[in-house]
Every structure is written in C-alpha cells, then in structure tokens.
Amino acid sequence: MAKILSIVESAYRATLEEQDDTVLWFNHMLANAGVELAVLLRGNAVNYLSRGQEVGELTFGSAGLGNPPKLGEDVAALKARGKVPVYYVEEDARERGLEGSGLVEAGPVSRAELPRFVAGYDRVFHW
Amino acid sequence: MSTITILSMDAPYESANSTTALRIVDAAIRKGHNVNVFAYEGAVSYTLTTQKPHQNPVKGTSVEEERHPTTKDWVAGLLAAAGEKGVKLDWVRCGLCEDERGAFDQVPGTRRGGPADFVKQVAASDNVLVIPTK
Fold first, then answer.
1. Model pLDDT for residues A47-96, shown as the tens digit of each residue
2. Residue range of the domain that includes A12
3. Could you tell me which of A46, A112, A127, B3 has the fewest CB atoms within 10 Å of its CB?
4. What ipTM was predicted for this assembly?
5. CATH 3.40.1260.10 is held by the domain B3-131
C-alpha cells in the first residue's frame, strides 16, 4: 500500500464548531482503517503541538460546546492510538516561539530537508 | 440601546468566521443591543433544522457523550436569549441562496428575505459589520 504524507497547514478552521480539527480527524480515521501515513504540521498548524491550549466556556443562550477541542491531546492520540508519526517544520515552530516541554513530542523537519522528506512518500496530501 | 447589523457569508463547520459572527451577536444581545443578521450564501445553513449531532469514532464517544454542538441550536439559543433580554434579533436568510442549496427546513423565528432586506437593516443600524468569505 502507498505511503501517504498529510501536510496540515490550515489551522483552527471551525475547530470550535467541530470540537476538533477535521483534517486531523480524517487522518486518524485513515490510520484506523489501516492506511500507512504520516502527518507533517506546518505554518500555523504547528501550534497544534502545544499542550497548553485552553478553550473556555462558550454558550449561545442555553446552547454551548459539549466537549471543547483539545488539539494537543488530539495530536498525541493520533501518535499513540493511531500509530501515526507526526512531524513539524521546525522553523515554523521557532518563528512562533514554540519550543520546550509544553509540546507534544514530534519529529522536526527543517525547510531545507523538506524536498527529501516529501520524496520519501508515494502520495502527498496538502491540506 | 443600539442596533447593529452583521452580514455573514461562510457556511457553518468550515471556518472560524461563523463562530466569530455568532459570538459578536451573543455579546451584543448580552449588552442589551438589537441585532440584525443577514445570512448570505453558505451562511443560510447555520439555521438548517436537519443538522444532527453525531458520535465521534476517533474518540470512541457516543452521540450523548460527544454532545456535538450545532449552529441551528446556537442560533435558536440566541433567539431565546434576545427574547429574555427584551431586545430584537432579526435573522434574515437569503432566499435565493436557500433555493440553490435546497436549504428549506429553517429554524423558526428566522425569516426568508433578500438584499433589499439587508438594505433596510443597514438603514436602521448604528453600525454594520460585513464578514465576507475569503
């Protein structure tokens, strides 16, 4: 079966209404179905590695969120339960001040390494 | 008490724009202001009554556990909140946009209209915010 790389760049797109990120969710479903894939976070999506994200209460009248999104936990679950390797563009993280122990552990890939890294996959989905 | 008008174009569940628009409506109502909303293009689907919460197979949660929000419930909540606060929430849906999308089952308390209704809303407003689709 082809090895797939999902490059996730769009971030925080309807995550409140969906209670998760639909692209991460889709990739987790693919992994559960036995697809061999890896995820590369780039651009603003590198912030999904942060474990310190807090979504406060949000209500409209009596209607609110059931389970607010926990994107750091979702990335960690993608790795742990979905067995999906997760990588990130290290310059994108550094530019946003994302460093240290508060991040989900993932593999750094420099911009210079990207062509060779991407060439290691049979199919590339850029979200 | 002021009156504001917000035009929103984005479909629900696709961007942060829809949640942002609803949060502004919510804040205005809480502060005692009248709000007009013109739901244009994909935004007519905010109020589709056929929306259903669903389970989450990735997290292994049932429909009851997931408690997935729906924008039709959020808008219904805003309409109820406006009523309790004694302010007006005039929610107009673009009728032709509904027709081309087959978006016919709509939350009671909202109404079908067109660009002329938006013009009337704007004329009666102290301020207007258009949130376009990018």
1. 999 998 988 888 888 888 888 999 999 999 999 998 999 999 999 999 99
2. 4-126
3. A112
4. 0.84
5. yes
